[in-house]
Specification:
alpha+beta, Protein Transport Mog1p, Chain A, 2 domains, 8-stranded antiparallel sheet, 3-stranded mixed sheet, 17 helices, 15 strands, 41% helix, 16% strand
């Protein structure tokens, strides 16, 4: 009997062991392939971004030596670029174009709308096609995420004067430098660059890695190329100075790609080897030499002689006025919440004092380069202002005085080129605070719909005023077109109260 009990116990134990072995184990985690993010909405329409990029790209051909489209290097980067573009969803793509600049330094830049310029020095510096593709994917990501457009749209209302000092300097340069500066792009010894934040750079790294992966390239190549540049020492390559390191760049990329499903990445490329070998024998120029040649028009003549002419794709060739564009989620503003009080109070803004309606608030800048906004609370949505005034200024360099007409013209161009505004007439003299200022009326899209929820136009009244110390203070008074005359007396009262 004892043996029977032992036998039964052993049988139960065996059954339990068998049952345990048959139980399903933990389900392995399913790792999906990375997908490109939704780039979201910015304050500039697709047409506006393409138009700005078209203007700037045409100016590049006036101020930098560019290889003709028929060159082996350009043909190669276009084929490589087409492979990268093919990974982007149709609803988010842009009319990307690829060009090669005859500059020795390692760099590349992409303009709003998709025009990309790769220095020939970048081709010769890459160890393999994946590294070059990584640089191009990074630049494509700036366009994909609309980083430049986000900056311009933000400056339209809260920081329109940011960068005007550079624009005013660009006017003095004339030619390509002046035109590019007026588009908010610096041109000079550091070549041509767009000011991206560290956050933009981190995002472009992450999105660029996805593009590489989907194109069949090892995204680790992007981290490898950045590491190689950082190891060069000294001040570092121009690419790093133009693309600020968001911190732990290589580690961040490696962490991003660590859990992606393994795939068979593309091996070496004979086309890359041929293009790199040919590029090594092509005459190129330093950034300093290019900056000097731009002032004399040397590159415009050279490009024309070599047949390097900017030929935009059909989508980039149009120019048309911007249509009204209401930010998603915006609701009509009730007049009772924005109408100005007849009681004025004085605000001390440091270099000036100005009176404003008692029921309007003073919104101070959140970061350097932004203006002071005076507006009803209901009229401010994020970075957009639908009713009120934005105040900012441009300071001259030591010993210099700014030219009021040049600064005013630079502001108007910045509105037209970046903010999608249309100028309604030329700047006119306007007496303000005992001096002669300038006044110009523009029209753009209001961030708020009308009472029926439909998009509506906005009037932007720009007033620029010189200060005793040689600076220029600017005021942008805004209200919907249909209601502007109702607010104008308040705006004029505010100007009449101005004291330096």
């Amino acid at each position: 009997m004892g043996n029977s009990l032992v036998d039964r116990a052993s049988s139960k134990l065996l059954a339990a062991v068998i049952a345990l072995t048959l139980l399903p184990g933990p389900t392995p985690a399913v790792v999906s392939a990375p997908e490109l993010p939704n780039p979201g909405h910015v304050g500039m329409s697709r047409e506006q971004q393409i138009q700005v990029g078209f203007k700037a790209a045409a100016q590049v051909y006036q101020g930098m030596p560019v290889l003709p489209d028929s060159s082996p290097e350009t043909q190669y980067v276009r084929q490589l670029g087409a492979k990268l573009v093919a990974t982007i969803p149709q609803q988010y793509t842009w009319p990307y174009e690829f060009h090669v600049v005859l500059q020795k330094e390692i760099n590349a830049f992409a303009l709003p709308g998709g025009a990309m310029f790769i220095n020939i020095g970048t081709i010769t510096a890459a160890d393999n096609e994946a590294e070059l593709a990584g640089v191009m994917a990074h630049e494509m990501s700036h366009v994909y995420m609309q980083h430049s457009a986000r900056q311009v749209a933000k400056e339209k209302k809260t920081g329109i004067f940011a960068g005007i000092a550079e624009a005013a300097a660009g006017i003095a340069l004339g030619g390509a430098g002046g035109e590019l500066a007026r588009e908010g792009i610096q041109f000079g010894a550091q070549s041509l660059m767009l000011k991206y934040s560290r956050g933009d750079e981190a995002q472009a790294d992450a999105v660029g890695a996805v593009i590489l992966y989907k194109s069949g390239y090892n995204p680790q190549a992007l981290a490898d190329f950045f590491k190689k540049l950082e190891q060069q020492g000294g001040t570092g390559p121009q690419f790093l100075s133009d693309h600020p390191n968001p911190g732990n760049r290589e580690a961040a990329i490696q962490k991003e790609i660590a859990d992606w499903p393994p795939v068979q990445y593309q091996a070496g490329s004979a086309a890359f080897a041929r293009a790199k070998e040919h590029a090594a024998g092509v005459k190129s120029y330093s950034a300093q030499a290019i900056a000097q040649g731009a002032k004399s028009g040397e590159w415009a003549r050279l490009n024309e002689k070599n047949g390097a002419v900017f030929k935009p794709s059909p989508e980039t060739a149009f120019t048309q006025p911007a249509s009204a564009d209401v930010r998603p989620g915006a609701s009509p503003v009730s007049m009772s919440s924005v109408l100005p009080s007849s009681q004025l109070v004085t605000a001390n803004l440091g270099p000036l004092t100005i009176a404003h309606p008692e029921n309007w608030q003073v919104f101070t800048p959140r970061q350097k380069g932004e203006g002071v906004t005076i507006a009803p609370h209901a009229a401010v949505k994020g970075d957009e202002v639908g009713y009120g005034v934005v105040i900012s200024g441009v300071a001259p360099k030591p010993g210099q005085r700014l030219d009021l007409d040049q600064v005013t013209a630079a502001l108007v161009r910045r509105f037209e080129g970046g903010g999608g505004s249309q100028t309604l007439g030329n700047p006119k003299p306007l007496p303000v605070a005992g001096v002669q200022g300038r006044s110009v009326v523009m029209q753009s899209a209001s961030p708020f719909p009308d009472a029926d929820g439909h998009p509506q136009k906005e009037r932007d009244w720009l007033v620029t005023v010189p200060t005793p110390d040689g600076a220029v203070i600017g005021f942008v008074f805004v209200a919907p077109e249909a209601q502007f005359d109702r607010f104008r007396p308040t705006f004029e009262s505010m100007l009449g109260s101005l004291r330096f």
